[in-house]
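Quick look at the format.
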Amino acid sequence: MKNWMDSLKPKLRNLQESLYLLARNRLSLFALILLCGIVLLALLAPWIVPYPQDIADEAHIADKFLAPSGAHWFGTDELGRDVFSRVVYGGRVSLSTAILTVGISLLIGIPLGAVAGTIGGKVDNIIMRITDIFLSFPPLLLAISLVAILGSSLTNAILAIAISWWPWYTRLVRGQAISIKERKFVQAAETIGTSKLKIIFRHIVPNCISPVIVQASMDMGGVILTVASLSFLGLGAKAPTPEWGLMISTGRTYFPDMWWCCIFPGLAIFITVLCFNLLGDAAREILDPKTRKR
């Protein structure tokens, strides 16, 4: 019992230091609280939105283009649907697509980067030349091309963005792996005959996690923007899905007279992306050993 408590103390100390660094940066703390609120609203959306029936393609022509009021906080759209209900529910779509996209990118990029950096030689050259080919295309342009080939849908948009995003993680993890494999604990594992596969996933990958977390937290905002861009161009979510980019694309026809159809989904994107970027900066500060010593 005592040994278990002793091993737990360093972890509690690190957690305390992390919370202190986060609380010290009030802007990042505010972003965290705001993002937690957005996530909570998204999770509870089916039960808390005032007009859940407006999530589907249900029309209320008599109520179309109503300005923001007590009955409809964000007004209504061209079909008379409550914009607030659709914006809140749209958080589920945008956040889930961002998590899936970044998750797929990590599943592809981390193993390839760890293998390339650890094994080196021809394996490294092959993986990195393939990576360079993908990196030579702008991510959004590559995603648009892939969706055009696969077909326009939210699922294909997620897959296309993940395919265009994984090389960044491969390059990041490869650089970390090259540095880590020269450390004594890795050399000791090689000396006792540990297989390359075990070294990669037991020693290399766990020690690459910190920069990956920072990059992934910042990429969440970028993915939300990219998904919204594809939906805006008609290559992502399809009606009646309440996706923020699609709502802006539909509402732009009626802007500026019915400004609320575009402004509120745009604000949702802006606030969510800003929160992820601020938290990415905070994560870099917390996980950087030089910053923790200040």
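Next, a different chain entirely:
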Amino acid sequence: MLIYCALGGLLFLTLVSFNINVLLSSVITLVSAFIYALSDEWHQTFVEGRTGSMSDVAKDTVGIICGIAICALVYMALTYITHKKLKSVSEQ
């Protein structure tokens, strides 16, 4: 779950860096990382001694959501602080 948290956060930050809004970046990140989690579990069915399970996909998805949430909150907070400082400097 921790790896998928990092994946979700980093993918979100990558999309936001291309000036894609926060909501759209979150949706794209969630969908694409979810598809990756599904494909990873499917891939495990071909490895001897391993199985793929939907409960693992669910756990991975929770990690993805946590990564998106953490990075989105930090991004929005830093954006707010930066704009507030720039506004106060321009008013002086």
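The two ends are 47 Å apart (CA to CA).

See the schema section for token definitions.
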